[in-house]
What we know:
alpha/beta, 15 helices, four-stranded parallel β-sheet, 17 strands, Rossmann fold
Amino acid sequence: MTLRRTPPAGFPRRTVVKALAAAPVALAFPALVRAQAGPVRVGYAIARTGPWAGGAQVSQEPNFLLWAEQQNAAGGLSVKGARRQIELVSSDDRSDIETCVRTYEKLMGSDKVDLILAPWGSNANFAVAPLANRFGYPLLGPTALSRKLIDMKLPYFFSLLQQPEPMMNALVDMLKANGVKSAAVIYVDDLFGLENHTALKAAVAGSGITIVEEKSYPLGVKDLAPVLRSMKDKAPDAFIGLTYPPDTILASKQAKEIGFNPKFFYASVGTAFQLYRNVMAAGAEGVMGMGSWNAKTSPGAKAYFDAHVKKFEKEPDRWASGACWAGLEILTAAVAKEGLDRKAIRDYIAGTEHASIIGKIKFAGSENLGTPGSVSQWQKGEFEVVWPKAIATAPLLTPKPPWA
């Protein structure tokens, strides 16, 4: 496999060439100084093609590119006070687990990059995290939502997203507080869907909410209309979709087509994307989903949001993009303090309460306990955090308006 070694988008190639051409000057210095003069090589595999690409190219890779560009524009990544340019070493994992794992094994084993960034999605992180642990590379995962992965107790892995239990507990608390008595559920038949479905069932138990129908579906599904029609006939107060981006849009479009409009309509990954608002247009109003921040959350969040829009002419998503940038903030601070000693970086991440654009982050093992479970909702073009009230950026809009 050939890995592309290219500067980040917007970073002039001639600058990298110039930096490498200057290397002979360092020959008069000790070996340590020569080593520090080179770029910091940061490796990752990410989906640029295949079914994972929709999420990966919204929530993760744009942030990797923006981070490298900003650090390099400031003179480079601070490595214990010494500025060194970032060189991203990356390739397309093609939405394939085997390709993803082989690539990370090469990055860490033979290429010996200085640092790694995470792949996209629960499944890929589940496969790569044990490998990163074996090679001793800290891995901050912004799109891994898996209790099983947390329970593996891998000391080098840190999950930035809220886990299934707090996310489903927040959803059920919100539904219960607003008088919901019945719900219909669909869930994708993979690690993400199965774990969130299990957490939802546990949260619903004793809540007074009855699940009137629940159906799993395969990754890459093309038609959910028959299931949605069956659910419409049961007239639930709420629809809950534990869905990936293509399925989130599919379920929403087909629900609109058949006139399935319960009081609460919740989909999962992808609801927070600008793409969802663009595709659904006015029909997005009142739709809820997984989200935890927006530009109102903090001054840092606003600065990040604006920088992302300026560079890519598109908005970051209001859930995992924020977690991804928070992870990059944490990694930046760790390297500034500890240099490129990966064990020291791991210890710093594990033992520090981190300030970030989405709030305080603190890890217990692999789990981020600082960020609460949350629910967001499209309101007048913004994906507002509506639950819990302590972090809300707007009040909940209820009931959901008719599809527009």
